[in-house]
Amino acid sequence: MILTPEDQAILDGKQGEVLQKVMKSVVVYGETFGADHLVPITGSPHMVTSFGANTIQPYFDMLDELIGAGLQSKEPFTVDPRPMEYDRLNPGLVEKLAFNLIFGKQAAYEQQLKKLGLKDENSFTCTCYLPEVGNTPAKGDFLAWSESSAVVFANSVLGARTNRNSGGIDLMCDIIGKAPYFGLLTDEGRQATWLVEVKTSSKPNAQLLGSAIGMKVMEDVPYIVGMDGFLGTGLNPATEAYLKDMGAATASNGAVGLYHVENITPEAVESGRTLLKPGYQTYVIDDHELARVYQAYPLLWKNANTQPDYIFVGCPHLARHQLESWIEQLENQLRHHKANRLKIPVYLFTAPDIQKAFISEKPDTYQTLLSQQIHITSICPLMYMNNPLCGRKPIVTNSNKLRTYTTARFYLDEDVLQIAVTGKLPSRGGK
After folding, report:
1. What residue ranges in 217-371 does DSSP mark as E strands?
2. Alpha carbon separation from 206 to 55, 245, 247, 252, 330 (Å, rounded)
């Protein structure tokens, strides 16, 4: 790798042994993937590791070494959601003991994050790019992010440039303020090798569409056509929220770090189908294909017909208008069924800034929601279900990311609303 004189001096140990190890880690990582130089990081950092799990003690030891050397991220950073919020989900005593055992380092870890450059107390969300959070990179910014749903949104919807890095590497890149130049940072790496033709009879469910794309193209870059007929051209908050959810599913059901949507995402608007590499493959998604994908999902509950304990909505975290839309839809269902409260408690996951703003702006509404069994929380539902006691619970979700990584059972939005108010599972919903 060709380094600047300043970077070479760091690699030679002239600014201390610890910073030398940081630079060496980043250089070796880059060389492994063919990078021949580093580029300055121009957007704010976001870290993927947000949980103080007892099993990653070597990671905490590394952070202590960085802190001891007086090192920090070049810019304040945001981080993925916390694993638990006891006053929102109210686990039982045994579950709480399990959480304390699994995430026993949480308080100490958050102190480490503050010393390393954590933006503020509200910075725990997987959707750091939302306007309420404020960590929104600009088009063309170089980043070193790791959170898969944030990576694919930053690359695709915002036009920033980041690879799907790993926890630890993200922090080390942000300490030196540079990232290895390879993969999705390069023009060549951002070209598409798949043409995905969406030919459904109506706007497809975002999570289901993303799942189909991700499982087909895996880590490749797809160029998606046909969505402008459903979403219009260009970007607006509703389209961005749709692409947020679709992209998260492509990244978790596959390993997509970037997609282009014709006439919608910025690079596709600028360059059109010239983004397609010669020899690209084609994948057609119609109603039959989406039904096939949906019906193929495995069922991981012990009893297929049991009544769910909870419904989880918001993985990745909901935007403010999505949060309010779900609340409105749930309350409409209650009025339609002449019911005062939902049969199944619904938890809506959103960023702490959005959660706190909603509760402070609408305290009376919030108390009504609680009485209706509608809850707002800012934790990570995936981390919640990593507690084996919670992971065994029958939980319904509309998130394909949560379905992929846990035992949660996926249903389409309209089915989720019916389950919430009736407590009954529809006949569809996976094998």
Report:
1. 222-225, 260-261, 276-285, 310-318, 346-350
2. 34, 6, 8, 13, 19
Helix (H, G, I), strand (E, B) or coil at 153: helix
Mean pLDDT across 57-70: 97
| 279-312: pLDDT as tens digits | 999 999 999 999 999 999 999 999 999 999 999 9
405 strand-pairing partners: none
Domain end among 185, 220, 245:
185
Domain stop point among 127, 157, 185 = 185
Pair 51, 127 in one domain: yes
Helix (H) or strand (E) holding 180, with range, is strand 178-180
Residues 177 and 200 in one domain: no
Question: Tokens representing 303?
Answer: 């009893």
How confident is the model over 95-108, as a mean pLDDT? 91
Give the domain CATH number at 95: 3.30.499
pLDDT value at 429 more than 90:
no
Domain that holds residue 62: 5-185
Q: Are residues 395 and 413 in the same domain?
A: yes
Q: What rounded mean pLDDT belongs to the chain?
A: 96
pLDDT of residue 90: 76
Q: For the chain, what percent of residues have pLDDT higher than 70?
A: 99
What percentage of the chain's residues is helix, strand, coil (to nearest 5)?
45, 15, 40
**Residue 310: strand, helix, or coil:** strand
Structural domains of the chain, count: 3
100 — pLDDT class (breaks 50, 70, 90): confident
Same domain, 150 and 198: no
Structure tokens of 140?
A: 């063309």
Backbone angles phi, psi at 379, to 5 degrees: -80, 180
Domain shared by 42 and 173, yes or no:
yes
Radius of gyration of the chain (CA): 22
DSSP 187-217: TGGGSEEEEEEE--SSPPPHHHHHHHHHHHH
Q: What is the pLDDT of residues 28-38, one digit of tens each?
A: 999 999 999 99
Specify the pTM. 0.96
> What is the per-residue pLDDT for 92?
81
